[in-house]
């Protein structure tokens, strides 16, 4: 949880002003069930769910100059700069009356993590990490019918490799600070959420 009074306005054009926020990073490999559990957390604990990928896609769809730049970078296979994603996350946090946020799919790597903390001056309350074997995630992604072009065996394995190389060091960093809450995500959805509820119960009495 962080209180930010004047966070790097020059770097992003946006500054937090005396807004106390609770941020939880949600990390897990492709097919680990993050999206389903984020929806449950929003419903039961009153968090606002911010997906870095959704924010980038919405910015592209808006047709803004920034969106065009993001689209061109993605088309060229380049990684969108951390500052761009962080600016979108900051704006979403400022535009929302809520003070509790799940940030899903970010930080994707150590550079993302360091930039987020440097720019926003916020450290996450904790990191919710969905642990799941590659075999189980592969099975889920191949079985789901969402019409996604990236749900083929070769792409799935590439995505998993990127996750292991880039995101696991972020988990290890926060684990060294005692901020990681690991969930066995290979279990049925209801059992996974029972474990999630145990972690989030401090935030609300609403959960049943």
TrEMBL record:
Its EC number is 2.7.4.14. It catalyses: dCMP + ATP = dCDP + ADP; UMP + ATP = UDP + ADP; CMP + ATP = CDP + ADP. Its cofactor is Mg(2+). GO terms for biological process: 'de novo' pyrimidine nucleobase biosynthetic process; pyrimidine nucleotide biosynthetic process. It holds the Pfam family ADK. Binds 1 Mg(2+) ion per monomer. Coiled coil: none annotated. GO terms for cellular component: cytoplasm; nucleus. SUPFAM superfamilies: P-loop containing nucleoside triphosphate hydrolases (SSF52540). InterPro entries: Adenylat/UMP-CMP_kin (IPR000850), Adenylat_kinase_CS (IPR033690), P-loop_NTPase (IPR027417), UMP_CMP_kinase (IPR006266). Catalyzes the phosphorylation of pyrimidine nucleoside monophosphates at the expense of ATP. Plays an important role in de novo pyrimidine nucleotide biosynthesis. Has preference for UMP and CMP as phosphate acceptors. Consists of three domains, a large central CORE domain and two small peripheral domains, NMPbind and LID, which undergo movements during catalysis. The LID domain closes over the site of phosphoryl transfer upon ATP binding. Assembling and dissambling the active center during each catalytic cycle provides an effective means to prevent ATP hydrolysis. Belongs to the adenylate kinase family. UMP-CMP kinase subfamily. HAMAP family: Adenylate_kinase_Adk, Adenylate_kinase_UMP_CMP_kin. This is UMP-CMP kinase. It comes from Asparagus officinalis.
């Amino acid at each position: 949880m962080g209180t930010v009074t004047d966070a790097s306005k020059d770097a992003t054009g946006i500054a937090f002003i005396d807004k106390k926020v609770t941020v939880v990073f949600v990390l897990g490999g492709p097919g680990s069930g993050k999206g389903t559990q984020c929806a449950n957390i929003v419903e039961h604990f009153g968090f606002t769910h911010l997906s870095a990928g959704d924010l980038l896609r919405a910015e592209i769809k808006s047709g803004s100059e920034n969106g065009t730049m993001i689209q061109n970078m993605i088309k060229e296979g380049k990684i969108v700069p951390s500052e761009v994603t962080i600016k979108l996350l900051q704006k979403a946090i400022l535009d929302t009356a809520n003070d509790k946020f799940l940030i899903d799919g970010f930080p994707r790597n150590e550079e993302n993590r360091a930039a987020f903390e440097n720019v926003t001056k916020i450290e996450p309350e904790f990191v919710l990490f969905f642990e799941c074997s590659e075999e189980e995630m592969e099975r889920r992604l191949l079985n789901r019918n969402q019409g996604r072009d990236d749900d083929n065996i070769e792409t799935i394995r590439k995505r998993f490799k990127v996750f292991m190389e880039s995101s696991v060091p972020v988990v290890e960093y926060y684990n060294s600070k005692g901020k990681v809450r690991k969930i066995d995500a290979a279990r049925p959805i209801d059992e996974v959420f029972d474990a999630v509820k145990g972690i989030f119960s401090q935030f609300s009495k609403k959960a049943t």
